[in-house]
Amino acid sequence: MHKELFLGKWLNLSEQSVVLELLKEAQTIHVKRNSLLVEAGEIQQQVLVLVRGVARGFLLDADGRDITDCFVYRQGELLMGCNALGTPSLISLETMRDCELLSIPLSKILPLMDENPTLLKCYIQFLLKGLERHWEGKMLMYRCSAMERYQWFLKMYPGLIDLVRNKHVASFLGMTPGYHTLNNNYKQPTLSKLKDISSKIFYLQRVQQ
Prior knowledge:
Blueprint: H1 3-10, H2 16-25, E1 27-31, E2 36-38, E3 46-52, E4 55-60, E5 66-72, E6 78-79, E7 92-95, E8 99-105, H3 106-115, H4 117-143, H5 146-156, H6 166-172, E9 180-183, E10 186-188, H7 191-208
Antiparallel strand pairs: 1-8, 2-7, 3-6, 3-8, 4-5, 4-7, 9-10
């Protein structure tokens, strides 16, 4: 990976002086799968940018259950446990596949953001994109059926379903891997069942074309 090209293209940084400043501090790191990157409550000291791999953010609910909050698998996405840099992380972050990351010390990023409007604008764009995705997911959770949520996931995260475990996708979508009784007369379908139904729908659509 050529760090200069990566910073310019994926972080949308066209200002050469900013890119050069970041290059002085940026380090490429390789992290094995199932490694904890940031723990909830920890103040993140490094700004981590995904080059390749898959990671997720998660938290524990009141009963101690692991709930997936987000997935990071697109090149150039930030791995952050909070919105405000330098504050305690709200969630934990872990790798789900072997990852290559670009790591830049937070102590170097903050002064640069004060001096360079381009870098600050880039950070704001990341925040806005993250908030948009967050609220879209929340609205989906309350307004859509399990199948609709699953179809949304396939559309928004193409290919990810084959890279992560069912239980993490299920918790992200507010479902369970196994049957979960919502009331006496209804059972929510499993993620495996939804996969099967979805593949059959896709097959029928192809046949009808």
